[in-house]
Amino acid sequence: MSTVTATTQIYRVYIKAKPEVVWDAITKPEWTEKYGYGGQADYELRPGGHYRGVASDEMRAMGSPEVAVDGEVIEVDPPRRLVQTWRMTMDAELAAEGFTRVTYEIEGTKSGSTRLTVIHDLEGAPKLAALVSGELEDTGAGGGWSWVLSDLKSLLETGQAIGW
Amino acid sequence: MIDDDRVFKALADQTRRFLLDLLFARDGRTLTELESELDMTRFGAMKHLRVLEEAGLVITRRSGREKLHFLNPIPIRLIHDRWIDKYTERQVSALVDLKTELEEQA
Fold first, then answer.
1. pTM of the predicted model, to two decimals?
2. Is the Cβ pair A150, B81 closer than 8 Å?
């Protein structure tokens, strides 16, 4: 069980797709490049394994280095649960806030859909918290988790992401 | 399953919108904290929070002995994408700008 505090952010979306499909969409680069920020996920899916979010062209145009997000896998239970650390390296101030923790909970519903919950523990990372909450969307920084997850829903349900 | 009707119903109430604004300003609050901002009984506050939870707009999690309430903005985002973006975003934002400008002058 993850601990939650007032600096935690929680996002939940229902997707008409099987949990296995949602798991793949989170962990496989050929899926992650199709929605949200469009980076390619590079996961070593075992505890202690690496995570790299390889920057998309859009992110590189905004000055991102090759690896925009890095972290370490903590817990893997496909297709139900993935826990990892998560640090944005796109700019020095965000990188300096250090590693945060992201938990994906993927649950099948009775109707054959999936309830996806993302819990982002942002203790000590106020700048990243503003970014992932979508506060900076008007500045071209993307809409954070709610944008990413709405886009994922759109992609899996319609075959088409909304995009930038 | 969360449907639009539940979200619209949940939003169609001043107290519930106020609760969402409170969580937007600061997430992860207890019932006691939220209730102290409302002019109603604990039971009344709980009823409103339950409607928000059923609409998927509020998610609760236990933290030790406390239950914390978190704002989930995604249902609102989906309504935005479905109803605002598609038809009227440009016109709406122009009107919002105009309203802001006129109100600043007033």
1. 0.87
2. yes
